[in-house]
Amino acid sequence: MHTWLIGGPTIRSLWLGLIMATIATIVLATSIITLYQTAFEEERNRLIETTQSQARLIEAIARFAIAHGAKHPMAAALAQIREAHERFAGLGKTGEFTLARLQGKQIVFLLNHRHHDLSDLYPVTLDGVQAAPMRQALQGESGSLVGPDYRGETVLAAYEPVAELNLGVVAKIDLKEIRAPFIHAAWVSSAIALVLILLGAGAFRRITKRIGRRVEQSEKLFRETFAHAAIGLAHVAIDGKWLRVNDALCNIVGYSREELMRLTFHDITHPDDLDADLQHITQTLAGDIDTYAIEKRYIRKDGSIVDVQLTVSLVRDSNANPDYFVSAVADISRLKQAMATIKTISGIVPLCAWCGNAIRNEDGDWVKVYKYIEKHSDAQISHGMCPACRESLAKSGGK
After folding, report:
1. Which domains are present in the chain?
2. Residues 298 and 269 sit within 8 Å (Cβ to Cβ)
3. Is-contact 206 16, C-beta < 8 A?
4. What is the pLDDT of residues 111-158, one digit of tens each?
5. Are strands 291-299 and 154-162 parallel, antiparallel or unpaired?
6. Which among 52, 60, 72, 218 is most buried, taking Cβ atoms within 10 Å?
7. What is the rounded CA–CA span in Å between residue 390 and residue 377?
8. pTM, two decimal places
C-alpha cells in the first residue's frame, strides 16, 4: 500500500551515505578503542616490569657496595647507575627512567632528565601536583598511574620504591605518544572510509536509479488505475474500515471520500445482506477461501438502495497474517432493472391448427407467429425455408 521510496535518488543516496557513515564510524571507533586499550595495557605492563627490574638492580648494587665496605654506599651505587643511565636510549620518543629521593618536603631527582633541566635538576614540592608517580614511589607504593610528571605533562608511569636506599624509581612515557599512532590511524581510516562511502553511495545511486524509476512508474500506474477505474475499488481494513477508496466507489454509494473514510462497510451494507457478507469474510480470514464474489445492496447517503456485484480478495503480510482486503464494486442496478423488464413468452399460446403460421395474442387478435415472437422477446426473426417446405414447393412446380 505504501511505496518504499523515501524520496528521489539524491535523497536515497544521502540516506545510504548517512547509514554507511554511521556504521563505519561505530566499527572504526570500536576497533581503534580496542586496539588502543590493548596497546595501553601492554605499555603499562612493560613500564611496570622496567621499574621493578631497575629497582631490584639498584638494590643489588647497593647491597654489593655495602658488602664490600663502601664508605658511602649510596654514592657508590649512584655512580654506577648514572654511568649506565648515560647509555640508556630511553623508552620511545618521550619515555624515560627517573630516580629520586625525598629530602624534607621536596622530591630531589638524581638522574639527568631527558626533556629539559638536563644537568641542573630542580626539585619538586612533595605536596604539589607535579611528579605524581615519583611521589607514590617515595611513599613506598608500587604500581602505575596516569598523571602529571615533573614537567606537568600527562604520562603513563609505573613506580617502584628502592628499599635499600629509600629511593623511588619511575619509568614513564607521555600519553600523547601512546595515543598518537591511533589518532593518526583514525584520521587515515576515516578518510578512506569517507571515500569508500562516497563511491558506494554513487554506485548505489546508479544501480538503483533505473529500479527506482520503474518502481515510481509502477506506483504512478497503480495510483492512476485505482483513481480512474470505471468500477469502485477500495482497500478495507480487517475491522471493516475503509483505508482507501476511489471516486467510482464514492459515486456508487453517494458519499464523499472524507465521509466514507469515517465509516465501515457495515454502516452502508443493507441489513439483510450483512450476515452473508460477514460469513464470506470469516471463511477468507480462516484461509478456507482466498476470494469471493457476491451480489449485495448498499444504502446510499440519500437512503436509496443500490445493487452491486462485490468481489473481495484478502492481502496477507510477509508473515502470512491477514493485512487488508481489496474490494471491487460494480453497480448492477440498471442490469437488475433490465432483467426485471425482459419480455418472456409464458402460459398457453393458441396457435392456428390449420396453417400453423398465426397465433392469437393477448388482445384476441390473430397475428403472424414471427410478429408475436418479436413483440414478446428480444429475438429478431430472419426468414428462410425448411427442407419439408422446400420439397413441397419443388413438387408443386413452384405453384
Report:
1. 9-179 (3.30.450.20), 230-340 (3.30.450.20), 343-399 (no CATH)
2. yes
3. no
4. 766 655 555 567 778 787 788 888 889 889 999 999 888 778 898 999
5. unpaired
6. 52
7. 28
8. 0.49
